[in-house]
């Protein structure tokens, strides 16, 4: 498994790692029953602190993607279909958070739609 963090990103390392592992599950690169590397090994591979990797694993456990048994490796407990549903729930939560923040800031619906459509065009139009 080839996982890397972007040192220049404003996204915390543990979140980058969590997203990459979740994406690997969604795409089927990690399958139900697969073991993840030990926290120590993944920390060495990604050049991250043990606590950062541990936090990422705990996030995946909280999302229901993996289980962590004491004195053992973490194991994937969902298939790609289940992971997709979890991923979609995460996207929904993120969108809702953006809408709440926008409402608090007084950003109107029309402007918000324009912003959203601009981002959609960036990623979903034929280039």
Kindly describe this structure.
- Helix 1 (13-26) packs across helix 4.
- The protein has five helices and two strands; from the N terminus they run αααββαα.
- With 127 residues, it is mostly helical.
- It is elongated, with a radius of gyration of 17 Å.
- A hairpin with a 5-residue loop joins strand 1 and strand 2.
- The model has no long low-confidence stretch (mean pLDDT 92).
Q: Which properties best describe this structure?
A:
5% strand, single chain, 5 helices, 127 residues, mainly alpha, elongated, two-stranded antiparallel ribbon
Shape: elongated
Query: Roughly what is the average pLDDT, rounded to an integer?
Result: 92
Q: Unreliable stretches, pLDDT < 50, 5 or more residues?
A: none
Rg over alpha carbons: 17 Å
Describe how the helices and strands are arranged.
Layout: H1 13-26, H2 39-46, H3 50-62, E1 66-68, E2 74-76, H4 80-105, H5 109-124
Antiparallel strand pairs: 1-2
Concise synopsis of the structure shown:
The chain is mainly alpha-helical and 127 residues long.
